[in-house]
C-alpha cells in the first residue's frame, strides 16, 4: 500500500516552512510521496480572495520548489476545479482515483485548530488520517492534546502529532517583505524567488 501525504494550502507563495514540514512528515510517517495541492479559490480567505495570486502562479511556484525532491509532487486537482475549494471533495476524489493508497493530510498547528469549522469535517476524517505539525514544546503539546481528543471524539478523527521545530516563516510575511522591498532570501527556494521577481508578484 502506497502511503501518500497531502499538503494542502494557498501557497501564496510556497516557502521553506512548507517544505520542512513535508519532509518531516515523509520521514516520521514513512510516506512514499508528499503531494502539494494548491487550492483554487480558498473559501475561508474570502476577505482577501481577490488578492490571492493566480492559481497558475501558485501552482508553478510549487512545481519549482519541489523539483529537486523525487518524493515531492504537485497536483493541480483543486486549481482545475475552479469554483470553491473543499478539502473533503479533494480527499474523496483522490481516494476514488487511488483506492489502494493510504492518505494522510499534513497540516500546521493553526489548521488543526480550525478543522472542526471546515466544511464537512467528518468526511475529511473518513478518507484520511491527519499529521499535525506542532512545535516541539510542552505548552503547545498540552493545548493540542485537548483539541485532538475533541476531534477524535466528535468526528472519529485519527490525528497524530508531527513534532517540528518552530519555523517562523509565513507566506504573509514573505508578501509583506517583497512589498516593502526587503529580502526574502533563505525563506523560500531560489527558483521561487526568481519566479516572483520575473513575474513581478506581490509588489
Ligand atoms: P498565509 O500567511 O498566507 O496564511 P501560510 O504561510 O500559513 O500562508 P498556507 O498556504 O496557508 O501558508 O499553509 C499551508 C499549510 O502549511 C497549513 O497547514 C499551515 O498550517 C502550514 N504552515 C505554513 N507555514 C508553516 C510553518 N512555518 N510551520 C508549520 N506549518 C506551516
Ligand atoms: Mg496560513
First-residue to last-residue Cα separation: 45 Å
Structural class call reads alpha/beta
**What's the gyration radius in Å?**
16 Å
Shape designation: globular
Helix fraction by DSSP (H/I, runs of at least 4)? 40-55%
Give the names of the bound compounds: adenosine-5'-triphosphate, magnesium ion
Summed over residues and divided by their number, the pLDDT gives a mean of 91
**CATH-defined topology:** Rossmann fold
Series of H and E elements: EHEHEHHEHHEHEHH
Specify the CATH class: Alpha Beta
Quickly count the domains.
1
Under the CATH scheme, the architecture is: 3-Layer(aba) Sandwich
Characterize the largest beta sheet: strand count, sense, and whether it forms a barrel: 6 strands, parallel
Total strands: the figure is 6
Condensed summary:
The chain has 203 residues and is an alpha/beta fold.
Outline the structure in words.
This protein has 203 residues and is an alpha/beta fold. It has one domain (3-167): Rossmann fold (3-Layer(aba) Sandwich). The chain contains nine helices and six strands. Helix 2 (55-66) runs antiparallel to helix 9 (190-199) and helix 4 runs parallel beside helix 6. The model has no long low-confidence stretch (mean pLDDT 91). The structure holds adenosine-5'-triphosphate (ATP) and magnesium ion (MG). Adenosine-5'-triphosphate is lined by residues 9-12, 17-18, 21, 107-108, 110-111, 133, 167, 169-172.
Amino acid at each position: 500500500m502506497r502511503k501518500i501525504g497531502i499538503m494542502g494550502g494557498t501557497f501564496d507563495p510556497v516557502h521553506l516552512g512548507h517544505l520542512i514540514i513535508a519532509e518531516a512528515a515523509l520521514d516520521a510517517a514513512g510516506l512514499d510521496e508528499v503531494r502539494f495541492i494548491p487550492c483554487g479559490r480558498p473559501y475561508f480567505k474570502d476577505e482577501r480572495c481577490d488578492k490571492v495570486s493566480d492559481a497558475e502562479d501558485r501552482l508553478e511556484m510549487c512545481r519549482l520548489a519541489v523539483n529537486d525532491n523525487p518524493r515531492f509532487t504537485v497536483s493541480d486537482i483543486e486549481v482545475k476545479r475552479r469554483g470553491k475549494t473543499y478539502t473533503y471533495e479533494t480527499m474523496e476524489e483522490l481516494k476514488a482515483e487511488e483506492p489502494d493508497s493510504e492518505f494522510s493530510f499534513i497540516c500546521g498547528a493553526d489548521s488543526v485548530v480550525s478543522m472542526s469549522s471546515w466544511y464537512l469535517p467528518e468526511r475529511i476524517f473518513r478518507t484520511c488520517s491527519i499529521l499535525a505539525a506542532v512545535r516541539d514544546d510542552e505548552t503547545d503539546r498540552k493545548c493540542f492534546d485537548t483539541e485532538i481528543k475533541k476531534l477524535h471524539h466528535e468526528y472519529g478523527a485519527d490525528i497524530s502529532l508531527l513534532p517540528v521545530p518552530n519555523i517562523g516563516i509565513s507566506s504573509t510575511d514573505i508578501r509583506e517583505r517583497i512589498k516593502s522591498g526587503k529580502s526574502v532570501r533563505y525563506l523560500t527556494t531560489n527558483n521561487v524567488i526568481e519566479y516572483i521577481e520575473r513575474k513581478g508578484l506581490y509588489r
